[in-house]
Design a protein that fits this description.
The protein has 203 residues and is an alpha+beta fold. It has 9 helices and 6 strands, in the order ααββαααββαααββα. A hairpin with a 2-residue loop joins β3 and β4.
Length: 203
Protein backbone atom coordinates (compact mmCIF):
# COMPACT_ATOMS: atom_id res chain seq x y z
CA UNK A 1 0.00 0.00 0.00
CA UNK A 2 1.56 3.30 -1.14
CA UNK A 3 -0.97 5.85 0.11
CA UNK A 4 -0.08 8.38 2.80
CA UNK A 5 -2.04 10.17 5.50
CA UNK A 6 -1.42 13.68 4.13
CA UNK A 7 -2.89 12.99 0.68
CA UNK A 8 -5.76 10.97 2.09
CA UNK A 9 -6.56 13.71 4.62
CA UNK A 10 -7.10 16.19 1.76
CA UNK A 11 -9.59 13.84 0.12
CA UNK A 12 -11.28 13.05 3.44
CA UNK A 13 -11.71 16.66 4.60
CA UNK A 14 -13.14 17.82 1.24
CA UNK A 15 -15.47 14.81 1.18
CA UNK A 16 -16.64 15.56 4.71
CA UNK A 17 -17.24 19.25 3.99
CA UNK A 18 -19.18 18.66 0.76
CA UNK A 19 -21.22 15.85 2.32
CA UNK A 20 -22.25 18.16 5.18
CA UNK A 21 -23.14 21.18 3.03
CA UNK A 22 -25.16 19.01 0.61
CA UNK A 23 -26.96 17.23 3.49
CA UNK A 24 -25.47 13.90 2.48
CA UNK A 25 -26.19 14.05 -1.26
CA UNK A 26 -22.48 14.24 -2.07
CA UNK A 27 -21.70 11.05 -0.11
CA UNK A 28 -21.75 8.75 -3.20
CA UNK A 29 -19.17 10.96 -4.94
CA UNK A 30 -17.18 11.00 -1.70
CA UNK A 31 -17.25 7.19 -1.60
CA UNK A 32 -16.01 6.93 -5.20
CA UNK A 33 -13.17 9.42 -4.59
CA UNK A 34 -12.11 7.56 -1.43
CA UNK A 35 -12.23 4.11 -3.04
CA UNK A 36 -10.34 5.25 -6.15
CA UNK A 37 -7.56 6.61 -3.97
CA UNK A 38 -7.33 3.54 -1.72
CA UNK A 39 -7.64 1.07 -4.62
CA UNK A 40 -5.17 3.02 -6.76
CA UNK A 41 -2.55 2.88 -4.01
CA UNK A 42 -3.03 -0.85 -3.28
CA UNK A 43 -0.64 -3.00 -5.33
CA UNK A 44 -0.42 -6.73 -5.99
CA UNK A 45 2.28 -8.35 -8.16
CA UNK A 46 3.28 -5.03 -9.72
CA UNK A 47 -0.25 -3.85 -10.60
CA UNK A 48 -2.63 -1.65 -8.64
CA UNK A 49 -6.38 -2.03 -8.26
CA UNK A 50 -8.99 0.33 -9.69
CA UNK A 51 -12.56 1.30 -8.79
CA UNK A 52 -15.16 2.18 -11.44
CA UNK A 53 -18.31 2.81 -9.38
CA UNK A 54 -20.90 5.26 -10.74
CA UNK A 55 -21.92 7.81 -8.06
CA UNK A 56 -25.42 8.11 -9.54
CA UNK A 57 -26.01 4.36 -9.14
CA UNK A 58 -24.75 4.57 -5.54
CA UNK A 59 -27.05 7.54 -4.91
CA UNK A 60 -30.08 5.56 -6.10
CA UNK A 61 -29.22 2.70 -3.75
CA UNK A 62 -28.79 5.07 -0.83
CA UNK A 63 -32.11 6.78 -1.56
CA UNK A 64 -33.81 3.37 -1.31
CA UNK A 65 -32.05 2.74 2.02
CA UNK A 66 -32.94 6.24 3.23
CA UNK A 67 -36.61 5.71 2.34
CA UNK A 68 -36.66 2.46 4.33
CA UNK A 69 -34.97 4.21 7.26
CA UNK A 70 -37.52 7.05 7.21
CA UNK A 71 -40.39 4.54 7.15
CA UNK A 72 -38.90 2.71 10.13
CA UNK A 73 -38.23 5.95 12.05
CA UNK A 74 -41.75 7.31 11.49
CA UNK A 75 -43.31 4.00 12.50
CA UNK A 76 -41.17 3.85 15.65
CA UNK A 77 -42.13 7.41 16.54
CA UNK A 78 -45.79 6.42 16.25
CA UNK A 79 -45.36 3.16 18.18
CA UNK A 80 -42.38 0.90 19.06
CA UNK A 81 -44.48 -2.09 17.99
CA UNK A 82 -45.21 -0.48 14.62
CA UNK A 83 -41.48 0.10 14.12
CA UNK A 84 -40.77 -3.54 14.98
CA UNK A 85 -43.39 -4.71 12.46
CA UNK A 86 -41.88 -2.49 9.72
CA UNK A 87 -38.42 -3.90 10.49
CA UNK A 88 -39.69 -7.50 10.38
CA UNK A 89 -41.44 -6.83 7.06
CA UNK A 90 -38.24 -5.36 5.60
CA UNK A 91 -35.97 -8.10 6.97
CA UNK A 92 -36.42 -10.59 4.06
CA UNK A 93 -35.23 -7.86 1.67
CA UNK A 94 -32.10 -7.03 3.68
CA UNK A 95 -30.06 -10.11 2.58
CA UNK A 96 -30.93 -9.35 -1.05
CA UNK A 97 -29.80 -5.71 -0.63
CA UNK A 98 -26.56 -6.88 1.00
CA UNK A 99 -25.83 -9.23 -1.91
CA UNK A 100 -26.62 -6.48 -4.43
CA UNK A 101 -24.19 -4.17 -2.65
CA UNK A 102 -21.42 -6.79 -2.65
CA UNK A 103 -22.04 -7.61 -6.32
CA UNK A 104 -21.96 -3.90 -7.25
CA UNK A 105 -18.64 -3.33 -5.48
CA UNK A 106 -17.10 -6.46 -7.02
CA UNK A 107 -18.25 -5.62 -10.55
CA UNK A 108 -16.82 -2.11 -10.20
CA UNK A 109 -13.45 -3.26 -8.88
CA UNK A 110 -10.65 -4.40 -11.17
CA UNK A 111 -7.05 -5.59 -11.26
CA UNK A 112 -5.03 -5.59 -14.46
CA UNK A 113 -8.19 -4.45 -16.30
CA UNK A 114 -10.04 -7.60 -15.20
CA UNK A 115 -13.27 -6.99 -13.28
CA UNK A 116 -14.13 -8.96 -10.19
CA UNK A 117 -17.35 -10.99 -9.94
CA UNK A 118 -19.58 -12.01 -7.07
CA UNK A 119 -21.59 -15.20 -6.46
CA UNK A 120 -22.97 -14.94 -2.92
CA UNK A 121 -26.15 -16.81 -1.98
CA UNK A 122 -29.30 -15.41 -0.39
CA UNK A 123 -29.50 -18.08 2.32
CA UNK A 124 -25.93 -17.35 3.43
CA UNK A 125 -26.75 -13.63 3.72
CA UNK A 126 -29.91 -14.47 5.66
CA UNK A 127 -27.97 -16.70 8.08
CA UNK A 128 -25.49 -13.86 8.62
CA UNK A 129 -28.12 -11.40 9.90
CA UNK A 130 -30.43 -13.90 11.67
CA UNK A 131 -28.87 -13.12 15.10
CA UNK A 132 -30.38 -9.62 14.81
CA UNK A 133 -33.89 -11.07 14.38
CA UNK A 134 -34.61 -11.09 18.16
CA UNK A 135 -34.25 -7.27 18.26
CA UNK A 136 -37.59 -6.42 16.56
CA UNK A 137 -39.19 -9.50 18.15
CA UNK A 138 -38.19 -8.29 21.63
CA UNK A 139 -39.67 -4.86 20.86
CA UNK A 140 -42.83 -6.46 19.48
CA UNK A 141 -43.54 -8.61 22.53
CA UNK A 142 -42.10 -6.35 25.23
CA UNK A 143 -42.90 -2.77 24.17
CA UNK A 144 -42.36 0.10 26.55
CA UNK A 145 -45.68 1.56 27.61
CA UNK A 146 -45.73 5.38 27.62
CA UNK A 147 -47.30 7.63 30.25
CA UNK A 148 -46.33 5.56 33.25
CA UNK A 149 -43.54 5.57 35.82
CA UNK A 150 -40.76 3.27 34.51
CA UNK A 151 -39.93 0.22 36.64
CA UNK A 152 -36.77 -1.87 36.78
CA UNK A 153 -38.43 -4.23 34.27
CA UNK A 154 -38.91 -1.33 31.87
CA UNK A 155 -35.20 -0.49 32.11
CA UNK A 156 -34.24 -4.10 31.29
CA UNK A 157 -36.72 -4.19 28.40
CA UNK A 158 -35.41 -0.87 27.07
CA UNK A 159 -31.83 -2.17 27.15
CA UNK A 160 -32.64 -5.61 25.69
CA UNK A 161 -32.38 -4.68 21.96
CA UNK A 162 -29.07 -2.89 22.58
CA UNK A 163 -27.73 -5.85 24.55
CA UNK A 164 -28.67 -8.24 21.73
CA UNK A 165 -27.02 -5.92 19.19
CA UNK A 166 -23.79 -5.63 21.20
CA UNK A 167 -23.62 -9.39 21.80
CA UNK A 168 -24.05 -10.38 18.16
CA UNK A 169 -22.61 -7.45 16.18
CA UNK A 170 -19.05 -8.90 15.97
CA UNK A 171 -20.47 -12.26 14.83
CA UNK A 172 -22.68 -10.67 12.15
CA UNK A 173 -19.81 -8.44 11.01
CA UNK A 174 -17.54 -11.48 10.68
CA UNK A 175 -20.19 -13.43 8.75
CA UNK A 176 -20.69 -10.52 6.34
CA UNK A 177 -16.95 -10.18 5.73
CA UNK A 178 -16.75 -13.91 4.97
CA UNK A 179 -19.85 -13.66 2.77
CA UNK A 180 -18.35 -10.78 0.78
CA UNK A 181 -14.87 -12.24 0.31
CA UNK A 182 -15.73 -15.92 -0.11
CA UNK A 183 -18.26 -15.03 -2.80
CA UNK A 184 -15.83 -12.84 -4.76
CA UNK A 185 -13.90 -14.15 -7.74
CA UNK A 186 -11.32 -12.81 -10.18
CA UNK A 187 -11.71 -14.60 -13.48
CA UNK A 188 -12.06 -18.28 -12.53
CA UNK A 189 -10.28 -17.89 -9.20
CA UNK A 190 -12.32 -17.64 -6.00
CA UNK A 191 -11.23 -15.51 -3.05
CA UNK A 192 -11.15 -17.01 0.42
CA UNK A 193 -11.33 -15.34 3.83
CA UNK A 194 -9.43 -17.00 6.71
CA UNK A 195 -10.28 -14.53 9.48
CA UNK A 196 -11.72 -16.11 12.62
CA UNK A 197 -14.93 -14.80 14.17
CA UNK A 198 -13.23 -14.61 17.57
CA UNK A 199 -10.84 -11.96 16.21
CA UNK A 200 -13.82 -9.65 15.57
CA UNK A 201 -14.87 -10.01 19.21
CA UNK A 202 -11.32 -9.14 20.23
CA UNK A 203 -11.48 -5.90 18.27
Amino acid sequence: FTGNARDYFRIWIVNLFLTIVTLGLYSPWAKVRKKRYLYGHTWLAGSNFDYHGNPWAILKGRLVAFTAFVAYTLATHFSPRAGAIVLLVMMPAIPWLILRSFAFNAANSSWRHLRFGYEGRYLDALRAIVPFLPIPIATLFFPLEPDRIPTSRDVVVALLPSMIFLAFYPYVRARLVHLRLDGTRLGEERCRCTLRTSSFYGV
